[in-house]
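This entry is retained here.
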Amino acid sequence: MDKLTLLKVLFGHDGFREGQEPLVDALLSGRDVLGVMPTGAGKSICYQLPAMGLPGFALVVSPLISLMKDQVAALVHSGVPAAYINSSLTPAQQREVLQRADTGAYKLIYVAPERLMAPDFLRLAQKGGVSLVAVDEAHCVSQWGQDFRPSYLDIAPFLEKLPQRPVVGAFTATATGQVQADIEKLLLLQNPLRVTTGYDRPNLYFEVARPKDKDAWLRHFLAGREGQSGIIYCATRKAVEAVCGSLQERGITATRYHAGLEDEERRQNQEDFVYDRCRIMVATNAFGMGIDKSNVGFVVHYNMPKNIESYYQEAGRAGRDGAPAHCALLFSPRDVQTAKFLLANPTENEALSEEERQSVREKDLQRLSQMTAYCKTTSCLRGFLLGYFGQRAPIQCNGCGNCQGEVQSWDITLEAQKILSGVARVERKYTKSLGASLIVDMLRGSKSQRVTQLGLDTLSTYGVMADVPRARLVSYVDFLTLEGYIKQDSGEYPVLRLGPRARGVLLHGEKVAYTCVGQAEADRLAPAKTAEANREEPGGLYEALRSLRTRLAAEENVPAYIIFSNTALADMAAKQPTTLEEFRLVSGVGEVKAKKYGQAFLEGIAAWQGS
């Protein structure tokens, strides 16, 4: 079958989405590829479809067990022979998969990078049946990537051990230019076709809030989203337990996920969320990669993540069905200290040398600095994110909290002169300078032991801003840093120095206007319609089809999206097919699913029409 026939028969789509076709064509012709596509853009089809058109079988290198299980389940339901090999299988089950693979039973085999060099797996691969190696989450190969995994460095040696090099495809949702260069180099890609479809997800609304009470903010936010599925990310296990417990006490069906839970409880909680038995998942960043749940209506970050790559990937788990979705980040200065503590106390990887660990820590701190800048900026949030990944964006998107919020501005030239003078005097007294907290204490005239020990109370700027509340002074310092009046280094204990714009304010009387986004509480927390409400009101055909899908999913014990996606149901409700031939024209309906579920959905549509 040609590629378009495969696309329709197996995946139910009449045409390719942006970026997919050139990647598919390149792999089918034997050319390596590097695909950078945002979450939900359809990366998996870029290697799943070529696997069906090439001889032998494809290996998909994937980092997480949950990702493998979900993708293999979806493929099998679409009629694609696929399997996975990972630690969730018993030794006997692993041997059975290897034996069946040896007889040509599969077209795709998902495998963790740690298993590539295992003798039994290497023997299978060296028999010459591997036509394609697809590397998912390819940013994991780079120390500049937010999820660096040393085991990904085994991929290149694995390829070199094969009797004939297969075509290689590398795919990721988040990769800066540096990371993309690392992917090409470390995976030994040969003249790859590079396709970057862009990072923008227009259906996602981004917001940064700085509430005094995060729990009160969350209660208000959730009150307008009853029935909507969402994820709340927390930085620590302790925060996960507290937030989840608070939601459950208010009668909200929430569950939790973090590394401190037993494997069985994590598995059960994940299934409860994916199968819509619990509508809210409260989790650390241990949850989510590869979770193909399309109807997530919001993602809230209760704490600031450690880097923009992780934030964008986690926020991107909202709105995968294309419906409007809300991505909110609740920021407080304490989050920065929590992130620094986590970076300073990582789970050490024995595969790294001390020099490599230090290099990774330095890069982590640089990324944290950018994440903090995102939380403090008053410019367009979408533009900030896209700019970080090297994509040009308009000055205003009119679809984020900063663009829709009311921008307030006032003159703080005098305050800026006092702050910059204070930084200058500290720099003069201490050649290595000091951190923001001590400088703020000095400006406010603190009598703390640390201030007096360092002699900061002897400086002429000591106490010159004693009448300014600490929180306001901290925000002024943050603003001056973002605008280039102050420089902050990226070390573990960053210090402040005068920036390139300070001279104009101190010596030439240049004015400084402080700007911030002052959003009205009601506007900022306006309830967003759920994905279902955007499609059809309660009692409509779409809702009836969702109920039917839920029943079928329960009977087969699979997640609802495995049957059909929300987008497929929406198209079904719009077209209202009455025959199997018409049913096959619905987007997302492949041949296997048409035969398996067509009659049930046609009867459901007819029943609704007759009601």
The chain has 28 helices and 17 strands. Confidence is low (pLDDT under 50) at residues 519-538.
